[in-house]
Amino acid sequence: MSESKPKFQCPIESISSLIGESWTLLILREAFAGRTQFKIFEHELGIARNILSDRLKKLVEAGLLSRQTNPEDRRAVDYRLTSKGKALLPSLIVLAQWANQHLCSSNAGVRFIDIESGDEIAPVRLTSGSGATVALKNVRMRIGDQLVEPSVLRRA
Amino acid sequence: MSESKPKFQCPIESISSLIGESWTLLILREAFAGRTQFKIFEHELGIARNILSDRLKKLVEAGLLSRQTNPEDRRAVDYRLTSKGKALLPSLIVLAQWANQHLCSSNAGVRFIDIESGDEIAPVRLTSGSGATVALKNVRMRIGDQLVEPSVLRRA
DNA sequence: TCAATTCGGTTGCAAATTGCAACACATTCC
DNA sequence: GGAATGTGTTGCAATTTGCAACCGAATTGA
Fold it and tell me: Cβ of B65: how many Cβ atoms within 10 Å?
């Protein structure tokens, strides 16, 4: 009764079970900002320790973070982004770009820059196989081999 | 005691308060798939009606969805993506691309295509101002005017 | 025309999740 | 050795979610 579409394993659904949980996206932000320690996560986020513990465990299980005792202080633990976790950075950037444009009036928020050029990462473009830019209105969702309604972007 | 960084309004934080809530991302998926009715959302997602009601209200308040009585059946309500909501599509696509690559073993999930070319939307690239591709390892987070630790992408 | 059905909610209550504070265990510092 | 630190865990209160029953307005249909 709870699943009406068991046919396809949906990527949005699977990622939703990760970042759709409270705190997880913010923990990832901290990880991308270079934070690795439990104590730092706790302090930066103001999150309850049991919840932080739970989220870190889940992120490790999901393979986004690695958990390793800090060699210099064996009380401490380093939570580091795995390559799988790092691969999520573009998502974070696109989300931040959207939020900077549509939610945060001031532009003082988090930004992402290319250390080689010093430039800020440019607004992400959707492209087709040929590399041509694809306009939002020309994007359709395909589920399995079936196109969903073209009415999605009809009205405001 | 809960906020240690009140200086900057963080875009990740603001978007986390939206899509970091259970169901919201899935509701948006359904909206992008062209669904507009309460009853359909409920049926497709298997979500409790009070929660669905709450989430739709929040999405309308946040300006991602518009709420309009259906002119043909005045019992029904159309929830439609606003332009602000539509602008979130690239985020959804990038998240889905990540999940398709890193979470969903089978490639049978949701996909996004360009109706002009018929091609699937290509993997999103990060670019600098000049349009050159930026490698993940060259991306740094900037908070306000301060670069955060360069150690982020150090080890696996 | 008037009863039954549908749509989009709301309400009350049980179950699950989150937050808080205290505790525990190993390591490190002094 | 004793105190402090880092990373948890545990128990309990508060909040959120899920479920089922109810409700009013609009529609259907006999």
Answer: 24
Alpha helices in chain B (DSSP H): 11-19, 24-32, 38-45, 49-61, 83-86, 89-102
Of B66, B94, B132, which has the smallest distance from its Cβ to A156's Cβ? B66
Contact A117 B128 (CB under 8 A): yes
pLDDT of B143: 75
| Pairwise CA distance, residues A88 & A9, whole Å | 19
Q: Calculate the angstrom distance between C1' of D6 and CA of B99.
A: 33
Query: Which pTM does this prediction carry?
Result: 0.90
d(CA A55, CA A49): 10
Q: Looking only at Cα atoms, what is the longest distance across chain A?
A: 59
Report how far residue A74's alpha carbon sits from residue B4's, in angstroms, rounded to the nearest whole number. 27
With the CA atoms of B145, B141, A20 and B36 taken in that order, what torsion angle do they form, in degrees rounded to the nearest 10? 70
pLDDT tens digits, B118-130: 999 999 999 999 9
Q: Say how far apart CA B7 and CA A104 lie, in whole Å.
A: 13
pLDDT tens readout for residues B59-104: 999 999 999 999 999 999 999 999 999 999 999 999 999 999 998 7
Q: What is the pLDDT of residue B150?
A: 44
Closest partner residue to B121 (CB to CB) among A19, A89, A134 is A134
**Cα angle B21, B24, B25; round to 5:** 110
**Nucleotide nearest residue A49, measured CA to C1':** D8
pLDDT reported for residue A110: 81
Q: Is the CB of B50 under 7 A from strand D?
A: yes
Calculate Rg over the CA atoms of chain B. 19
Strand spans (E) along chain A: 65-69, 77-81, 110-114, 139-143, 146-147
**Confidence at residue A94, expressed as pLDDT on a 0 to 100 scale:** 97
